[in-house]
Amino acid sequence: MSGLVPLYLALVIPLAGAVLIAALGRWPNAREAATLATGVALFAFVVSLLEHVLAGANPGVVLVWLLPNLPLVLRLEPLGMIFALVASSLWIVTSLYSIGYMRAHGEAHQTRFYVCFAVSICAAMGVALAGNMLTLFLFYEVLTLSTYPLVSHHGTPKAMKGARTYLGVLVTTSVGFLLLAVAWTYALAGTLDFRAGGILAGRASDSVLLVLLALYVFGTGKAAVMPFHRWLPAAMVAPTPVSALLHAVAVVKAGVFTVMKVAVYIFGPDLLASTGINTWLMYAAGFTVIAGSLVAMAQDNLKRRLAYSTVSQLSYIVLGAALANTWGIVGGSMHIAMHAFGKITLFFCAGAIYVAAHKTEISDMRGLGRAMPVTMIAFLVGALSVIGVPPLGGSWSKWYLALGALDAGQILFVAVLMISSLLNIAYLIPIPIRAFFSKPADGSEPAGFREAPAFCLAALSFTALGCVVLFFLADDVYRLLVPWFGA
Question: In this structure, are 165 and 59 located in the same domain?
């Protein structure tokens, strides 16, 4: 099977696209056409892989052997399939949005932007399809480095400061903690392969395993578990399409995806549950869920409010991994996709508001819904999905997480999920209410429509629709995951 599935094309396609985009930099229309064509080609290839996973296959390909038993390898499995589908599909939509945003805002260095975006998607594909922890770690680092120029895109002192925080936190955690965890795992198990049921059972004492789990979780800084979350709000100095990349397409999803892979394939759910080393992680995730929401409520800047919302929402996925049962893993894995579509919609709307109305503060958005009805309706849809209201995708992932908490006998975390949803309502719903039902502070009425460019509207409308579609696809995602992680 491995010889029949050229998984390396998931890396080659975006890399080739990056080269083509760079070559066409003098011709904006051709450059952007190449960006969209590359995105479509990658998504089509990823979709073609789905049949193998549905058939129960686990195809792989070795890229290079570093040691006799330590290759860089790509391998396909359900978690990676979900992440690859999310990243490749949303790359197309984000590219479409970027065309409207970057042109309307007159951004400089647009060719560099599209090239770095393509390289970062290549790295995300490497993370998604990694067949062992070494491969995942290397592509994880490439993702950090390739997104640094995007965060620092504006080149202002504020942008450079935010980018330094971004790079400093992510590199420090990954080199200081994650790399140590990877090396320690290899020393204990003699392998770094991702295997069903994990590779660490019987390899170390419970206390060693507890320390190792902490190194993995806090070493994966992209998962933004407190206190290693500062890079995420700091990175909001980047253009809005970059914020969308960070929050939905690649970066934070690579973080929580890594935590889920480690829980399922390095430790294994049975080992986590039987030793009790997962208990502290439940509390750390639960604290981040609530604390992130409370901090979000205090933010008047829209992008910063959404950034702290992401800090909170990511720990839903970490909590799912920590619950170490089928419902928790399914719910957390679902939330990778459900949150991606909801949060990217919210960031697209934030960027559209900035381009069309030049507003960044929530307190200045009174009456804006009358001038930008499409944008604010899409914002409401994305917000309701993040909150978990049917018939939107976010309702299913939260439902399965609650079932996972009940199955683990952790009633406290059912309460955490409920309180968090109430806090989601408190910091998200007032925004569209203020936009539709309040007059501007000066009492004036908006003078006609002033929506963002058509490409921006098309992108945010598509992702808002995706929030609805995912509600009806939840059963398909469930059937994809459950045969691999439990009955």
Answer: yes
Closest CA to 88 of 148, 27, 45: 45
3-state DSSP percent of the chain in helix, strand and coil, to 5: 75, 5, 20
Is residue 122 in some structural domain?
A: yes
State pLDDT tens for residues 240-269. 787 777 767 788 889 999 999 999 999 999
424 is written with which tokens? 């989601």
Give me the half-sphere count of Cα atoms (radius 13 Å) on the Cβ side of residue 472.
4
Sign of CA dihedral 89, 486, 274, 335: positive
In single-letter form, the type of residue at position 336 comes to: I
Q: Quick: pLDDT tens for 316-356.
A: 999 999 999 999 999 999 999 999 999 999 999 998 998 88
- Looking at residue 8, the DSSP 8-state letter turns out to be T
Q: For 231-292, give the DSSP string.
A: HHHHGGGS-HHHHHIIIIISHHHHHHHHHHHIIIIII-HHHHHHH-TTHHHHHHHHHHHHHH
Give the helix/strand (H/E) hosting 73: strand 70-75
Q: Give 132's strand partners.
A: 193
Q: What's the CA gap between 208 and 20, in Å, rounded? A: 48
Burial category of 157 from C-beta neighbours within 10 Å (exposed 0-12, middle 13-18, buried 19 and up): exposed
- 3-state class (DSSP) for residue 5: coil
Amino acid at 199: I
Rg value, the chain, Cα: 21
Provide the domain limits for residue 157.
1-259
Shared domain for 30 and 82, answered yes or no, is yes
> Which tokens hold the place of 305?
């409010």
Residues 169 and 73 placed together within one structural domain of the fold: yes
Question: Is residue 445 pLDDT above 80, yes or no?
Answer: no
Length of the chain, in residues? 487
* 278 C-beta neighbours (distance < 10 Å), count: 23
Residue with tokens 């996709």: 337
The torsion defined by the Cα of 419, 335, 224 and 13, in degrees rounded to 10, comes to -160
